[in-house]
Design brief:
The protein is about 35% helix and about 20% strand. By secondary structure, the protein is of the alpha/beta class. It has two domains: about 5-10 and about 20-135 and about 240-300, HAD superfamily/HAD-like (Rossmann fold, 3-Layer(aba) Sandwich), CATH 3.40.50.1000; about 140-235, 2-Layer Sandwich (Hypothetical Protein, Haloacid Dehalogenase-like Hydrolase, Chain: A, domain 2). A seven-stranded mixed β-sheet has the order 7-6-5-4-3-12-13. α1 (about 65-75) packs parallel to α9 (about 285-300) and α5 crosses α7 (about 190-215).
Length: about 300
Amino acid sequence: MIFPHLANLQFPLKKTYVIYSKSTDFLLCLIINMKISNLGKIDTQKKDLIVFDLDGTLIKTKSPMDSDMSKLFSRLLAIRKVAVIGGGKYQVFQDLFLKRLKCPKLLLKKLFIFPTTSTLFYRFSNGWKKVYSIELSAREKADIRRAFKETFAEVGYRHPQKTYGQIIEDRKSQVTFSALGQEVVKVLGNRGVELKKQWLLRNKDLKMQMTRILQKKLPKLEVRAAGVTSIDVTKKGIDKAYGIGKIQQHLKIPVKRMLFVGDAIFEGGNDYAVVRTGVDYIKVSGPEETKKIIKLFLNR
């Protein structure tokens, strides 16, 4: 049990808790939207697999994983199996996550990668090997581009004068709109991160409106608000709940033995789909809170 002294306390849903644990001697600040109301019943010993979102959870938006996270993640792999699901394409996982992860190759066999919202699955066996791929057809991708164009016109959205890379990217198994372009953080670094945050502050409601309109125009496909400035479109039924199901199928680990950690577990967010799977989940505000979750497991 994580906090045995809290076992008999009931915690209302959808609240923010700041908890100090003498046993681990660090402040655990969790923004928690748990499917269970008794925080004291979360048992780390009964979680065989930890599933992380990538962007905004393990890394800052479109930014390389930092060295502290790499060290913590490597230590976590020594004691648990870990899966990572994200909207980014496989090359993004390679550049921002896998190439930054410094750990023995033997431990990589306990790591499972699900890019483009789990439409791809890679596992390590003398290198990273693709297990499956679910790609959009040419007709579907054409319909998606037309729907984006119509939606932009309908809401009066104008693209920024300066963008970096593709605004609408074909990721084969997913088509993604990125308001400032796919390469903004790669080109501008931290300034690019700040520009994305500023765009979201100005356009959050508009982004959600565009997501809803796109879903109506593409009823046979799945549309999700993703990342900070992104909207993802995949085949119908492809979301992170689908990913949890694929993890259960391929790794033979039941949902009750998993824990999901993500930053977008809110209605309309691209992590929210995991709620309907019944998996225990923790909502974080970013990588710094994720590090606290990992430390929780390491200090048991």
